[in-house]
Amino acid sequence: MRYSALTRTPETPPSAGVLAANIGSPAAPTPSAVRAYLRRFLADPRVVELPRLRWWLLRNLIVLPLRPRRSAELYRRIWTPEGSPLLVINSRQTADLELELTRRHGEHVPVELGMAYGRPFIAQALRKLRDRGCTRFLVLPLFPQYSATTTASVFDAVARELSTWRRVPELRLIAGYHDHPAYIEALAAGVERTWREGGKPARLLLSFHGLPVRYAEAGDPYPEQCRATAALLTEALDIEPGRVITGFQSRFGREPWLEPATDALLRAWGGEGLEGLDVVCPGFAADCLETLEEIALTGRETFELAGGRKFRYLPALNDRPQHIAALADIVDRHLAGWVD
Fold first, then answer.
1. pTM given for the model
2. Which residues contact 244 (CB under 8 A, 6 or more apart)?
3. CB 108 within 8 A of CB 102
4. Distance, CA of 261 to CA of 247 (rounded, Å)
5. Per-residue pLDDT tens for 137-161?
């Protein structure tokens, strides 16, 4: 084993730094780039819990030869001149969070962005924090609700990189913030702003990313935390609880996933001729393929083709000032004792 060499640090290094982490996205909306991304993503045993030989065969003989072309078409629908929406927004969040933390504390608090399966990789972000002089690292996975498929995958990537370091930093991990008051307030403020400008809908759908049922049965707290977030957000909004429904999206494969399924709800409500539906995705800190394409575009098409009217997708919290302030509140709680 060869450990990384120590680097020269600034004369007055910061006391702590923050790693803001997400899943990542392909480098480009092309089949080859999507294939490279999916190869890393789908190789993670946290993401797909199947016998490894069986999954290796399925992944390499069926999924990777077929899925990248279709996924690339979906990415092209939402790609921006700046690149991947997720990467663009996460980069802005990271820069704004560093400014906000530095403003609050009167000392520099570095924040670097790292992705589990795409660039910039988590390993690169950790090295940047080290090179900026940090010896205490706070890991902020940008997933409000904990799941082994997301938060734990980030932790694994951090641990893999640190296992190669000669000097390992002090480390803290934010395992989730699904019920943090500032996060709930930011969600509610965004919804209420839309309602003030365009009126309330007949129904509000809170759509979270899905998860195989057996993951929850094995002890993953994700569905409980999603429903807790939904209950707190409903309580914070001026709307009858019966008009708010929680659904789960992004199903993959044939095994049972969490119910009710978002696409099934959209199809059924459209068939009822529902007039007035708002969709919010509280589990996504930044807009991405799953919100911009799956919900805002395909979800709208599903609903309207079935007969529904007045569909609105309400954007994720993204880099709104209230969201940055909420993230800073969450980070501050975990920086206690490290930063004044």
1. 0.94
2. 203, 204, 206, 230, 233, 234, 237
3. yes
4. 5
5. 999 999 999 999 999 999 999 999 9
